[in-house]
Write a structure and sequence with these properties.
The protein is mainly α. It is built from twelve helices and no strands. Helices cover 64% and strands 0% of the residues. It comes from Spirosoma endophyticum.
Length: 179
């Protein structure tokens, strides 16, 4: 967990790619939304760490999305956390939160209309809307509903200066999961 705290210490105050919050504010707000919704600790921790792939060192990145973060950050982050002993549930929720956006754009035109400018730009790099076949396959993921919830919180966690628990609160929760 020390490494994860260091990643937030190094890059947590960076802007969250075209949104009015920092990386850390976004992570804390997303976790708080999960907790307020009554999610279990694994889901809350996944919400807190869902964008950890954006904070990883540049040499791990496969490229960047024109100022909107790391390409494939969801897979990078999930793999990084798997290597550190996090559960497959945490990893799957993180690994598929971008697929959830692609799925929701395919299934719901109103969702597409509500995406922020930054989310629209990154969607281009992330493969655009899912095809019908991709959507059917995605719906079979055992964590499908949790992934969609995480996506909802991800979209909402963009409020400047919103009071949240501090990083230590969610780091402690994370440590209990891998303890």
């Amino acid at each position: 967990m020390e490494t994860i705290k260091n990643l937030f210490a190094q890059s947590g105050d960076d802007a969250y790619f075209g949104e009015p919050v920092t990386q850390l504010e976004h992570a804390l707000q997303c976790a708080q939304l999960a907790e307020q919704a009554g999610a279990d600790d694994e889901t809350i921790v996944a919400a807190f760490l869902h964008d950890i792939g954006h904070l990883l060192p540049p040499e791990l990145a496969g490229g960047y999305m024109d100022g909107y973060g790391t390409i494939d950050h969801e897979r990078l982050g999930a793999d990084y956390l798997r290597e550190r002993g996090f559960s497959e549930k945490v990893a799957q929720l993180i690994e598929h939160h971008v697929n959830a956006k692609r799925y929701l754009v395919f299934k719901n035109p109103n969702y597409f209309a509500r995406l922020s400018e930054a989310s629209l730009r990154t969607l281009e790099f992330q493969g655009g809307p899912m095809s019908a076949g991709e959507a059917l396959s995605f719906e079979t993921n055992p964590y499908f509903k949790g992934i969609l919830l995480l996506r909802t919180w991800d979209e909402q966690a963009k409020i400047p200066h919103l009071p949240t628990p501090g990083i230590e609160y969610y780091v402690a929760m994370s440590e209990r999961l891998i303890g």
